[in-house]
Amino acid sequence: MQTAAQATNSPHTFSRDTDRYAKCVAASKRVRWEIDRDVIRGRDFNFDKRFLPDGLSRLGELSFLNADERRFLSQIQGRTYANTFGLVERFIGPKIAEVSRDHWLGDQAAFEALVRFTDEELKHQELFRRLDAMATAGMPAGYVYGPQPNDVAGFVLGKSTWSVLALTCHIEIFVLQHYHQSIDPDHNLDPLWKDVFLFHAREEAQHAILDELEWRREDEKLTSEERDRAVDDLIALVAAVDGILVAQSRSDAQYFANANARTLSVEQLAQVEAGLLRAYRWQYIVSGVQDARFQKALGSLITPAQFERIGAALAPILAGQNVH
Ligand SMILES: [Fe+2]
Ligand SMILES: [Fe+2]
Fold first, then answer.
1. How many angstroms does the Cα of residue 266 sit away from the middle of ligand 2?
2. pLDDT tens, 14-31?
3. What is the DSSP string of 182-230?
4. What letter would DSSP give residue 142?
5. pLDDT value of residue 283
6. How many CB atoms lie within 10 A of CB 144?
7. Between 16 and 255, whose confidence is greater?
8. Phi, psi at residue 314, to the nearest 5°?
9. By CB distance 3.0 to 4.6 Å, which of 53, 79, 242, 297 could disulfide with 186?
């Protein structure tokens, strides 16, 4: 005879990963923060400070810039960095809400973890919109963030779930890497900007775990042919990301040139644009694909030939990167 607990929690209520989902729920509750109460706390940016640390902005490669110009460029990059997370969160939230459907009448810990994940991404988007409004108020006019979140999300969500989860896992792993390796150790960044990414990383830590679980779960549904097509989708998604980075590095270089105190030569402007593209490719593509955790997750799902196909597609993007 079944006990009451067994009757309520039929075997289908639990997945093999239920403990991991439950731990994500517990951590999500423990670190939960509010935008005004915990992060902004009535503060504004200090524009005498850098936003993005040198390890991510890679401004050391633009030797002709003075200290003020470096600081301004780190702020432009920091603004684009925040906007880009707001951009990708537009497709991450709906995709996670969509895959949560498989858990509706199943593992309730998994369902709760993904609902919290979706809710957190909605909050993050609001936070990044608030930051951009504050940056607009405190920085020279003329900055443009080009990509339209709904257009980009519409394109991304048209690709296979496997590829969207792969891209999402990649993003959420590099968020953590950037914070722990570059942002946290730099004690000269604007304190508000730095806090934003501290609080963001605290919630992203759970997201990265959940991405891996959902990606693997999705992977188990696919035939080898479907997975092979999903690898093509992932390559197409990375190419689309790169297209965004090419356009935004041009836009940000032009804004820098227009707003900067000294007039740059055509050659210097071209160097700034190339430097921004190198930095953006490092931030949004290369640092993630070279991350050991992402490589392990991807490598466990695909064949060596597929791994090589992705590597070949990345080669032109990696070519302009100096050793890191
Ligand atoms: Fe986020
Ligand atoms: Fe996230």
1. 39
2. 778 999 999 999 999 999
3. IITT-TTB-HHHHHHHHHHHHHHHHHHHHHHHHHHHHHTT--HHHHHHH
4. T
5. 97
6. 9
7. 255
8. -80, -15
9. 53
Amino acid at 284: Y
67-99 vs 161-178: helix crossing angle, rounded to 10 = 140
* Residue whose token pair is 């509750």: 29
Distance from chain centroid for Cα 320: 21
Instruction: Please name the residues in contact with 205: beta carbons below 8 A apart, sequence gap of 6 or more.
Output: 27, 31, 176
CA–centroid distance, 177 to ligand 1, in Å, is 14
Residue whose C-alpha is closest to residue 97's, from 155, 147, 149, 168? 168
- What tens digit of pLDDT does each residue of 129-142 get? 999 999 999 999 99
Which residues have C-beta under 5 Å from ligand 2, the single-atom ion?
Answer: 172, 204, 207
**108, 13 Cβ separation under 8 angstroms:** yes
Residue 140 CA to ligand 2 centre (angstroms)? 30
The amino acid at residue 38 is D
**Ligand number with the minimum distance to the CA of 200:** 1
| Cα–Cα distance measured from residue 157 to residue 151, given in angstroms and rounded to the nearest whole number | 10
**Is 60 exceeded by the pLDDT of residue 2?**
no
Give the Å distance between the CA of 169 and the centre of ligand 1: 12
In terms of pTM, does the model score above 0.85? yes
